[in-house]
């Protein structure tokens, strides 16, 4: 039977209330995975409602401090931490991240020991934070397990982390919601440790941004992070989080408009980011991709040598390209070389599958049309 999208006869807020109550009915331990952003703030206040209804005491909150976080966000998280109805665990766990500048990626360790000794941490570790040291790990290398493995330690029974994921924010987030027919908003963490009794509950997945602010203001008179006001005034990016990865850094100039002191501190730690700020508007990434794509598989090898920094990333990229090439040989329309090079140049291979083309995409339509015409010698470039 074909699935059909149906609209509920209640508001998205009331639907979220039903979902979150179901989560509390189903799981032994429920925590809010809080980022300081607007969406996780809405989830926090939904959880507050349930705790007040059921007399559950303070809401359990998890904050994963990613070091390169806006001072305005940290100020807001600190404010929330002091609410008498919040029980917050603040984690500063060392794990790998990136600084991406004009296609070149530098791997770093958040809260890394080396940068700590050099005075190049963006912020000092708060005295109240739970760190890698608490789990027996030095900060000279990333922790061996995913962060969720550490944040759920000490939690009893089946555990659910309430998240502020909204499907409207990206196609990836939308697809993560529509994979299941029942309890579609309760999912297993991506690459979670096998056997770990943890689920993510995306209770506001169908909200729009206006629903979030309306709920916070009209239903609770709640505060939110001041950064959103600055972003609205300057037309800047409204996503909170690490600003130096391959997507966010393309709008690094927003920090100069909203939080110049924060930008200066990032520049002190990573001087190369100023090249990104200055030259990205003039950097013709499409021309760069086209130049490599014109050289076919030689272009793939050259792009890997140029854009993949370090032997580990080069090995992974070459392995990915080898698997991609095998599939390209069987079906070049479904596996165009240009797509592979684009992801190499933009350093976006990390979470990619080697299957870029699916039904209803433009590339798929071109492929099917060509196959119907009996074209056999298309090379995918």
Describe this protein's structure:
The structure is a single chain. The protein contains 16 helices and 9 strands. The chain is an alpha/beta fold and 381 residues long. The strands form 2 sheets. Strands 6-3-2-1-7-9-8 form a 7-stranded mixed β-sheet. It has a two-stranded antiparallel sheet with strand order 4-5. Helix 2 crosses helix 7 and helix 13 runs antiparallel to helix 14. The protein is globular. The two termini are 39 Å apart.
Strand order of the largest sheet: 6-3-2-1-7-9-8
Question: SS-based structural class?
Answer: alpha/beta
| Ends apart, CA distance between termini | 39 Å
SSE order, one letter for each helix or strand:
HEHEHEEEHEHEHEEHHHHHHHHHH
- What kind of sheet is the major sheet? 7 strands, mixed
Radius of gyration: 23 Å
Instruction: Find the count of extended strands (DSSP E, 2+ residues).
Output: 9
Unreliably modeled segments: 375-381
Name the average pLDDT.
86
